[in-house]
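Following up on my earlier thread - several people asked me to post the actual chain instead of describing it. Fair enough. Here it is, all 163 residues.
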Amino acid sequence: MKICHGFGCHFQSQLDLGAADARRISAILAAGRASPHAERAAVSKAVQYYESRAASVVGVRDHAKSNARQWHRRGQMDCIDESTNTRTFLLYLERRGLLKHHTVQRNVTRGFLIDGRYPHSTAVLRDRSGEKWTIDSWYTPTGGPPDIMKLSQWLTRGVMGVR
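Reply from S.P.:
Thanks for posting it. Predicted structure:
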């Protein structure tokens, strides 16, 4: 799968997840079979594993909340890179039947400056009840736990760049 980095997918690196990766990821997701809540906790751990693997290919661990000074630097990721990479990985999980309680949705963006919020994007899962959940890894450095919260809550946040 392609790993976007350098802001707006300026650079792309290829990550090949092999059999050992697939076994590890399956084991992580198996812990989440009991409920939607447990599956989201497992998704968090799986995203952390995936990001660490991606960093090994890119060769750089990105900083939390990479700012515009990081533009076009290999390995640094804006929210477009982060949300694209996370969604790509979530689709990998979905295609392999590892998501039992959620389906992958399109990425969502909030904010447009005149409302006091910087534009910010995230990956989204929908549980069987219809509730949508964000999987937002931009706020932590590579391999850190992504923010997972209801989309309705996430949409109200981010005023003046605050989490």
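Residues 2-154 form one domain. That should answer part of your original question.
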